[in-house]
């Protein structure tokens, strides 16, 4: 594995009231690596992303970043379970929200980048539309564009396709693969879907039930670039069976 861009060094997170969300979580993530994290609800997957973003304080351990990554002005970008778009803003304005918060001058500087992202995600014709005029998949594309606006080194994604229908989910998965192939950002992707994790990832981290720990790490060596055709291969099936076995042994139920 290449030099880690981010390392979890025995990270723990305890909440008031005695809930232990994450305990002794240890993992190195390489620069440009696509890592998916799967596990049961309540095992601390989303908590890990909050710890990376600094939205929650650590109880124990530490999260370390490569020095170069720490110096970047936009080290992380976040794509949420729901796109969280402002209904009164146009699509373009929603993408530019991070820049608008920094002032008019920054917004003007970033508008070209925002339009490039909309074009890349097939949303050029909808730049002046409002969220209620878009499908769920299109709204999530706007959320992805917003997260990519400042070209973050690390992209965090918290079950971004979980609320979408199967066909839309497949298309956005392919879109994400294309974006990753082009830019090779470091991606930490939270999902309940084993097949989605295998299709996207270099490695799949399987978490134990709460308190969340690393139960297994599965290296995915399927050739890239990948398409949906790989889902029908024997190798793909073997990866999904292995991950399912780890989860079943922990008495976990997840999506197929």
TrEMBL record:
Pfam families: ABC_tran (PF00005). The keyword Cell inner membrane does not apply. One of its GO terms (molecular function) is ATP hydrolysis activity. Keywords: ATP-binding, Nucleotide-binding, Transport. Residues 6-234 form the ABC transporter domain. InterPro entries: AAA+_ATPase, ABC_transporter-like_ATP-bd, ABC_transporter-like_CS, ABC_transporter_ATP-bind, P-loop_NTPase. This is NitT/TauT family transport system ATP-binding protein.
């Amino acid at each position: 594995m290449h030099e880690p861009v981010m390392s979890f060094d025995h990270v723990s997170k305890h909440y008031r009231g005695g809930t232990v969300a994450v305990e002794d979580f240890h993992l190195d993530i390489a620069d440009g690596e696509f890592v998916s994290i799967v596990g049961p609800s309540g095992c601390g997957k989303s908590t890990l992303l909050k710890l990376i973003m600094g939205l929650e304080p650590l109880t124990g351990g530490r999260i370390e970043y490569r020095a170069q990554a720490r110096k970047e002005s936009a080290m992380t970008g976040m794509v949420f379970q729901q796109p969280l778009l402002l209904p009164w803003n146009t699509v373009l304005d929603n993408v530019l929200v991070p820049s608008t918060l920094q002032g008019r001058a920054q917004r003007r500087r970033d508008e070209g980048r925002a339009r490039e992202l909309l074009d890349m995600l097939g949303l050029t014709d909808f730049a002046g539309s409002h969220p209620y005029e878009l499908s769920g998949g299109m709204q999530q594309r706007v959320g992805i564009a917003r997260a990519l606006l400042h070209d973050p080194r690390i992209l965090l994604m918290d079950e971004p396709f979980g609320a979408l229908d199967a066909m839309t989910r497949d298309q956005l998965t392919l879109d994400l693969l294309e974006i990753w192939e082009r830019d090779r950002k470091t991606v930490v992707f939270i999902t309940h879907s084993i097949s989605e994790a295998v299709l996207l990832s270099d490695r799949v981290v399987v978490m134990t039930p709460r308190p969340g720990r690393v139960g297994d790490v599965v290296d995915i060596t399927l050739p890239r670039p990948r398409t949906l055709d790989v889902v029908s291969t024997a190798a793909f099936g073997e990866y999904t069976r292995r991950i399912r076995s780890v989860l079943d042994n922990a008495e976990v139920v997840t999506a197929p």
